[in-house]
Design goal:
GO molecular function, one term: purine nucleosidase activity
Protein name: LAME_0D03268g1_1
Distance between the termini: 19 Å
Order of helices and strands: EHEHEHHEHEHHHEHHHHHEEEH
Largest sheet: 9 strands, mixed
Family: Belongs to the IUNH family.
Pfam families: IU_nuc_hydro
Domain Inosine/uridine-preferring nucleoside hydrolase: 4-300
Bound molecules: beta-D-ribofuranose, calcium ion
Strand content: 15-25%
Structural class: alpha/beta
């Protein structure tokens, strides 16, 4: 099993990342930090607790409050995509049966997880990089102790902000934190970036929606079906996606299966380039939040960020369906 810590901002697609982290047998989810992002931090925390309650994991997965705001920029949320709550579109979300853990800070909780699984643990980040960058900034000795940092963020040839077509939301909301990871020699080479170039291939079409619903036999499948429908409507109105929404965040988990040799390249088919990246962080730049390529390294070297461009989408959707099946039975 791959030990992981998930930092997220649910978020409709974050909800799918939580599902896969909790239920795919290849992963051991040690904890979650819920950070500001798609909605203010109190809302993403509530959504996380509600989701793990819906999945029956409320007594198993500790949830901490993560980063509360970006390093430098003013907080910006995404109600145009995820609604005011961050997870609009369903009445099937239960009242949380767990609370945020308050025994320690998320920084201490992540530190303990990393120290307990030194050399094997990976961090999965599906929101801004604020929490992750804060951790390594304050505790640099942890850098050598993590295996990978798998991040949904950025876009090389694609963007998704109306304000600025070259920027992607997770990097745009805290480009300074992103740069801390991209410019650090140790962290950048451990970073697997899953950018829009890849996630825009993971479209939840009508067929995928039906797969999610299956025979509609479980509340959890109905909950995810309703989340997908709302997400699709948002993406159609705000971004002009006509065939369905791109389900970005859970894709971060798939390359890990190949890099930990749990699956083969034939199965996962993760295609990547090794790139030195920079996030444009000047508030007045017309390209604020863009992930710019500074240099490309040969794939054989272990310098530069691993930036994904393709993977086996059939395999990915199979994993989503598998996790939904396992979650519905539990
Ligand atoms: C990213 O932005 C958020 O709205 C999604 O949850 C995803 O993490 C896509 O740009
Ligand atoms: Ca997210």
């Amino acid at each position: 099993q791959i030990p992981i810590w998930l930092d997220c901002d649910p978020g409709h697609d974050d909800a799918v990342a939580i599902l896969l982290s909790c239920f795919l047998p290849q992963f051991k989810l040690l904890g979650i930090s819920a950070s500001y992002g798609n909605a203010p931090p109190d809302k993403t925390a509530y959504n996380t607790l509600s989701l793990i309650t819906a999945m029956g994991k409320q007594n198993q997965i500790p949830v901490y409050a993560g980063a509360q705001r970006p390093w430098v920029r003013k907080p910006i949320y995404a109600p145009d995509i995820h609604g005011q709550s961050g997870l609009d579109g369903t009445s099937l979300l239960p009242e949380p049966k767990a609370r945020l853990c308050s025994d320690q800070s998320y920084l201490n909780a992540m530190t303990n997880a990393i120290e307990a699984y030194t050399g094997t643990i990976s961090i999965v980040s599906t929101g801004s990089l604020t929490s992750t960058a804060t951790l390594f900034n304050e505790r640099p000795h942890l850098k050598s102790m993590v295996k990978f940092i798998s991040v949904m963020g950025g876009g090389i040839n694609e963007g998704n902000r109306n304000e600025n077509e070259t920027a992607e939301f997770n990097i745009w909301i805290d480009p300074h934190a992103a740069n801390m990871i991209f410019q650090d020699p140790i962290l950048s080479s451990k970073c697997i970036l899953v950018p829009l170039d890849l996630t825009h291939q993971a479209i939840a079409t009508k067929e995928i929606e039906l797969m999610v619903l299956s025979d509609g036999s479980s509340n959890l499948r109905r909950l995810f079906y309703e989340l997908f429908i709302f997400f699709g409507q948002s993406y159609e109105h705000a971004q002009g996606f006509e065939t369905g929404p791109p389900v970005h965040d859970p894709l971060t988990l798939i390359p890990l299966l190949e890099f930990y040799h749990i699956e083969t390249h034939e199965t996962v088919a993760f295609e990547y380039r090794r790139l030195q990246l920079q996030a444009i962080d000047h508030e007045n730049s017309p390209n604020l939040g863009q992930t710019r390529v500074l240099k490309e390294y040969p794939k054989t070297c272990d310098t530069g960020t691993i930036v994904g461009f393709k993977l086996n989408m059939l395999y990915f959707w199979d994993q989503v369906n598998l996790a939904l099946g396992l979650a519905s039975k539990s």
